[in-house]
Amino acid sequence: MTNTASNGIKTVGLAPKMDSGFYGQDIISVRQFSRENLTYIFGVADEMRAVVKRVGSTDLLKGHVLACVFYEPSTRTSSSFVAAMSRLGGSVIPINEVTYSSVTKGESLPDTIRTLESYADVLVLRHPEVGASTVAAEYARKPVINAGDGVGEHPTQALLDLYTIQSELGQIDGLHVAMVGDLRYGRTVHSLARLLTQYDVQMTFVSPEILRMPLDVMNEVKASGRSVHETYDVHEVIGDVDVLYVTRVQRERFADQAQYDSVKDYYVITAELMQTAKERMIVMHPLPRVGEISYLIDDDPRAAYFRQMENGMYIRMALLAAVLGKA
Ligand code: NCD
Prior knowledge:
Layout: H1 35-55, E1 65-70, H2 76-87, E2 91-95, H3 108-117, E3 122-127, H4 132-139, E4 144-149, H5 155-169, E5 176-180, H6 187-196, E6 202-206, H7 215-223, E7 227-231, H8 235-238, E8 243-246, H9 257-263, H10 271-274, E9 282-284, H11 305-323
Bound molecules: N-carbamoyl-L-aspartate.
C-alpha cells in the first residue's frame, strides 16, 4: 500500500473501511471499499497480470502461507486463490472436505480458525452461513477473506467482476448493467450491486417474481440515488445494456424442489437473443453455468465469462499481496 497509516494490526469492528490501507485487514464485505481502494486494487491486478504473462510467477509472498477453508463446493474461487498464492511464491493449506455439522452449533468454526491461523498468515473462508466470515474474523488475529458466506456476500467475486467491466469496456461510469436470473440467492449479485452503487451506473434487475433482489440490497441501491429498475423480461433490456450479468439458479438454496423446477429454466441466453444486443457490450457470468447461457455464444467476442474467470486470479493475487503488506 502507498499509505503510511497502516501497521498491519487488524482494525477492530465490523468489516471496517479500508481507509488506512489493506495491510492486515479482513475482507468481508464490499461495503469496505471506496472508489480509491478499487482503483488501487485494479492497478495492482494489472501489474499481477503483467507479471504472470511475462514470467509466470514472483517470490513476493515467499515464505507466506494461506489457509484455504471451503465448507461449500468451489472450483474457481478455491483454485484461483491457490494459483494466486502459488504464483506469488507462497504456499497453501487447502481444506476442502470439512463437515460443518458442529460448526452450525457455533463451536467448530472458531476452533478451526484458531487452529489454522496458528499455521497460516491469511485465511480464505467459504461457508454456507451468512455472517460466518465476520465471526471468523472476530476470532482470528490474521486477515480473513470472505470467499462466499451463504446467500450473503462474495466480495472477491464482485471485485473481479468490476475489474472485468473496467478492463473490457474501459469504464464503469455511464454504463447500463443488467443482472439476470437468481437475484434472491445469488451472493455474487448482492455484492456486485452494492459495489456498483459507487459508480454512475444504471442497473436493471431481471428475475422471476420469486427470485427478486432482496429488499436490503434494493434499498441500498435506491438510497445511493442510482437508477434501478426491475423486470422479469430479459427482452426488455437486452438491446440497451452494456453488461448482461447472468447467474445460475442456486438449486442448493431451495427448500422446495418443485419451486426450483418452476424457475430453473426461466432464462437462456441464446445466439438468437444476442443478435438483439449491442455490438459493444459484454456477457458475464460468475460460473458455473447450468444451462442459462448457450454454449453457442462462447465464441462471440462479447462473451466475457472466461476472461472474467481468469481475472479472478489477478484480483486475488492483488488482494493477498495487499493484506500481507507486500503490494
Ligand atoms: C459463485 C458462488 O459460489 O457464489 N461461484 C463462484 O464463486 N464463481 C456463483 C454460483 O455458484 O452460482
